[in-house]
Amino acid sequence: MTARVPTVLAMRPDVAEAAFPDALRRRLDAVAEVDHTLVLTDFGDPRAALALARAEVLISGWGCPLVDAAVLDAAPNLRVVVHAAGTVKHHLSPDFWHRGLAASSAADANAYPVVQFTLSLILLAGKRALRMAHEYAAGEYKGRGTARDFGNVDRTVGVIGASRIGRLLLPLLVREGFRVLLSDPTLSDADAAGLVPAPHRVDLVPLDELLVRSDVVTVHAPELPETRHLLDARRLGLLRDGTILVNTARGSLIDTEALTRLCAAGRIDAYLDVTDPEPLPPGHPLFALPNVLVTPHLAGAMGTEVARLGEFAVAEVERFAAGLPLVGAVRASDLTRIA
User: Fold this and answer.
1) Where do the domains of the chain lie, and which CATH numbers do they carry?
2) Each residue's pLDDT tens digit, 182-221
């Protein structure tokens, strides 16, 4: 029998419990030597030293502390970090990448709940459900809307960024009958054409044109220095009256002050699962606006969905133990284009 790979868990204990139910723990135990009672949130914990000294695999998750030079020095046998969540940017330091270690992320498993949530928001927003709910509560409901700004037929959705989530969303949008515009400076027209099944099409256009032409704009670009306030006051001003803006990517992509002014004026509706800052301070004007919905970054895996992240991570450890390539491999060169 092949020796099991020494493995350490680093995440919040509640995350470990949700990500690795009994059946997954047994599956992990078949290939990994892991102490499920030791779930690290502090690499300085006295109990961590022995486990880190032996570890070849670190399974990280939400709440994992920074993996810096000191941690790497304490884990001389470490070969791979498998992240049972999305982005690895916040817990793998530059030292990790400089040492050439392997990393994997369950971002693919985390993506589909975000796609489902985003599509749901787009469909809900198209019915002007938020505005109608406020009117109903105030006794101002006048019956089913017949104005042209109601409904999801004959609508154009602009997708900013052909990210992992953006690419998964595109086929669902064309299936729902939307015209779809896409803005992504890394793509060619031929690239864009291959993102949805024939006979559907996606039109690749410059960002400013997308903003002018879209009834709904949904944001899926990565958080990078050059994408901070990608939607600034000038670009937000290009949106037509009644446009719906959906952001399930990162709050920093939108200038919050400019967005607040635009929404307060009633020019657009906004559905925001992410904000800048995050969380928004209590009493922020966006919370009180009848044309804005702010949710607490819940689009990604939650509750029963978290086990999907654990399942992906266990499968990666199984592949690593068998000497197979990692499906969710993340490389240093990827950091400039991923969330």
Assistant:
1) 5-105+303-336 (3.40.50.720), 111-294 (3.40.50.720)
2) 999 999 999 999 999 999 999 999 999 999 999 999 999 9
Annotated catalytic sites, by residue? 250, 278, 297
Digit-coded pLDDT (tens) for 110-144: 999 999 999 999 999 999 999 889 989 999 887 77
Q: Which of 249, 258, 268, 283 is nearest to 115 (CA)?
A: 249
Q: 241: how many CB neighbours lie within 10 A of its CB?
A: 9
Contacts of 122 (CB under 8 A, 6+ apart): 152, 157, 173, 216, 218, 244, 246
**What are the pLDDT digits (tens) for 283-317?**
999 999 999 999 999 999 999 999 999 999 999 99
Cα of first residue to Cα of last residue in the chain, in angstroms, is 40
Give the per-residue SS3 of the chain: CCCCEEEEEECCHHHHHHHCCHHHHHHHHCCEEEEEEEEECCCCCCCHHHHHHHCCEEEECCCCCCECHHHHHHCCCCCEEEECCCCCCCCECHHHHHCCCEEEECHHHHHHHHHHHHHHHHHHHHCCHHHHHHHHHCCCCCCCCCCCCCCCCCCEEEEECCCHHHHHHHHHHHHCCCEEEEECCCCCHHHHHCCCCCCCCCEECCHHHHHHHCCEEEECCCCCHHHCCCECHHHHCCCCCCCEEEECCCHHHECHHHHHHHHHCCCCEEEECCCCCCCCCCCCHHHHCCCEEECCCCCCCCHHHHHHHHHHHHHHHHHHHCCCCCCCEECHHHHHCCC
pLDDT at 91: 95
pLDDT at position 1 over 60: no
Provide the edge-to-edge strand list for the sheet that holds 102-105: 32-40, 5-10, 57-60, 80-83, 102-105, 329-330
**pLDDT for the residue numbered 145:** 67
Q: 235 falls in which pLDDT band (50, 70, 90)?
A: very high
pLDDT above 70 as % of the chain: 99
